[in-house]
Specification:
Layout lengths: L3 H17 L4 E4 L2 H8 L4 E7 L5 E6 L1 H7 L3 E4 L6 H7 L7 E4 L6 H10 L4 E4 L1 H9 L3 H21 L9 H14 L18 E5 H4 L33 E9 L2 E11 L4 H20 L6 H15 L16 E5 L6 E6 L11 E4 L2 E4 L3 E4 L2 E7 L2 E4 L8 E3 L2
Parallel strand pairs: 1-5, 3-4, 5-6, 9-17
Antiparallel strand pairs: 1-2, 2-3, 7-8, 8-9, 10-11, 10-12, 12-15, 13-14, 15-16
Length: 396
């Protein structure tokens, strides 16, 4: 359960943003957003006025929502009823109402327009996401706790990895173990059309395949209908295996990548892996409050270009190279800020970011590392997962 003090901190902090923008209230419907402010993942609308307490309107299940959420909760039977519910609960009718334009379906937007005929709608998505990007100590502790699941998987994987197994077999055994350790499987992603399982266990040339997913690695996937992540292909001795997994506990995610191999990894891949470790550490040190995300990205990109022979392989290859080296993470996998080209967000203490320097070699494989960190002070960010970075190697 989310402590009431934590929920109150969020509500009061976001109200200050509404007041600064002369927005009289905001109506939230996206699951991560409503969970963040209410503490329940039930099917609800959350109304936050610029002044006064939130109102939670629940389609279902209202009883469970009441058990999990401390705010006033009323039953909701339809969008057209929302203005009446606000009036009945002594909330002022909003003339300016914030909505999540980035995730709100057009059909629902039109229904809100019919319900709030005298209201101007404004987009609240960016200030809301930026507010959520700065995590409290309570949230940071949840993410660090989630990291213990991946650390346990790192210790476990050498006991199950063996010659002759397929990617999807290894993937499935890891997921089973993760579930017993508390992983919740629900990886929330905000981006339109995004679909995500919990990561990928890909090996050799398949790990270097691009995909529709906006990331440096793709994987062959199970079939043409899900061309991302693990495939039914047998893992070959000597090829690098990517264990890139998102663990989730109490809704909070951590994104981590380690490298496995059956037998010996080639010297070229080992050298590239050492470069990825250097890039990760340099990025961690560069994540200092007050800097912009783009500034850090340009610094890291320049270092890769000048100090490694892998610039053309960094974060993809050719036209599929992605223009970032890290992404915000929390209740969603794709939170702010991204350490990317054009990102103007100013780094602030409490931002949690997954750093993922990876090198892709088409037809051969991919190599890299990933860790979730929290921005803190002048010495850079702090790692939130303690899984060792040594390559897991087993005998063929």
């Amino acid at each position: 359960m989310v402590p009431i003090e934590e929920l109150k901190r969020r509500w009061l902090g976001f109200q200050r943003i509404l007041q600064s923008k002369n927005i009289e209230g905001t109506l939230l419907v996206q699951r991560a957003d409503t969970l963040y402010f209410s503490g329940t993942a039930q099917n609800v609308h959350v109304y936050i006025p610029a002044i006064g307490e939130p109102l939670v309107m629940a389609y279902r299940d209202i009883q469970r929502a009441q058990e999990e959420c401390p705010w006033e909760i009323v039953p909701l039977t339809g969008i057209s009823k929302i203005p009446q519910l606000l009036a009945a609960s002594n909330r002022k009718y909003p003339k300016v109402l914030g909505l999540e334009f980035d995730v709100l379906p057009v059909a629902n937007y039109q229904r809100y327009g019919k319900a709030f005929v005298e209201t101007q709608f404004v987009d609240i998505a960016y200030p809301l996401r930026l507010f959520r990007a700065i995590k409290s100590n309570w949230e940071i502790a949840r993410i660090a706790e989630t990291g213990k699941i991946y650390t346990a998987l790192y210790d476990y994987v050498s006991t199950i990895l063996h010659p002759g197994m397929s990617e999807v077999e290894l993937d499935g055994l890891l997921e089973l173990k993760a579930r017993t350790l508390g992983h919740e499987t629900m990886v929330r992603v905000r981006g339109f059309g995004s679909e995500f399982h919990y990561g990928q266990v890909s090996s050799g040339p398949r790990a270097a395949l691009p995909s529709y997913f906006d990331g440096p690695l793709g994987g062959l996937g199970a079939s043409y209908t899900h061309p991302l992540g693990s495939s039914h292909t047998q893992i070959v001795t000597g090829e690098p295996i990517i264990m890139d997994l998102v663990m989730v506990k109490e809704g909070y995610q951590i994104d981590t990548t380690r490298i496995l191999v059956i037998g010996e990894l080639s010297g070229a891949f080992r050298t590239a892996y050492e470069s990825s470790l250097l890039v990760e550490e340099k990025t961690r040190q560069a994540l200092v409050p007050g800097r912009t995300a783009e500034e850090v990205y340009e610094e890291i990109l320049l270092w890769v270009q000048n100090e490694t022979p892998y610039a053309e392989n960094f974060m993809g290859f050719g036209p599929t190279q992605v223009k970032f080296v890290g992404h915000g993470i929390g209740l969603e996998l794709d939170e702010l800020p991204t350490i990317s080209k054009g990102a103007k967000e100013v780094l602030q203490p409490g931002m949690t970011i997954a750093i993922e320097p990876k090198f892709v070699f088409p037809g051969k494989g991919a190599i890299g590392v990933e860790d979730t960190v929290v921005v803190e002070g002048k010495k850079g960010a702090r790692y939130l997962c303690q899984a060792p970075r040594e390559i897991v190697q087993i005998k063929p």
